[in-house]
Amino acid sequence: MSEAFTPANDLERALVEAHAGRLEPEDFIGRLMASEVFMPVYESASGQFGIQASDKARPLMLEADDGQRALVLFTSPERAKPFLKDFPDYNGGLVTEFTWILERTGVGFAILLNPGTEVELALDTAGLAGEA
């Protein structure tokens, strides 16, 4: 781990430990399931007074060259800021339980946790389906 990524919460500490091989993947998933994450959402510029026009949050989804879709999540809103500079329409978001996100989004896509950081992680939601 370099000085560029200093863990700021329990989930980030677990992520660093998992990347270093000091935490088993199953144990990390257990901690992730018990944690809150930040989900960037689209905020329409047409909303008045900072109120979003739609009642449905549109989370940031990316698509790989092979067509695989991935939901973008972060361990905190602060971790999202550098990445979201390339996605200015996603200037909203919510901090919520990881399990809440799984329950509402279902499966069939990947999850990118902390993309653009040294400890980014890609997860297949199919393996998490029974966990939520």
Topology:
Blueprint: H1 10-19, H2 25-33, E1 36-41, E2 61-63, E3 69-73, H3 77-84, E4 92-97, H4 98-105, E5 110-113, E6 121-124
Parallel strand pairs: 3-5
Antiparallel strand pairs: 1-4, 2-3, 5-6
What does this structure look like?
This protein is of the alpha+beta class and 132 residues long. The chain has a domain at 37-128: Trna Endonuclease, Chain: A, domain 1. It is built from four helices and six strands, in the order ααβββαβαββ. It has helices spanning 10-19, 25-33, 77-84, 98-105; strands at residues 36-41, 61-63, 69-73, 92-97, 110-113, 121-124. The strands form two sheets. A four-stranded mixed β-sheet has the order 2-3-5-6, with no helix packed on it. A hairpin with a 7-residue loop joins strand 5 and strand 6. The longest helix has 10 residues, at 10-19. The mean pLDDT is 86.
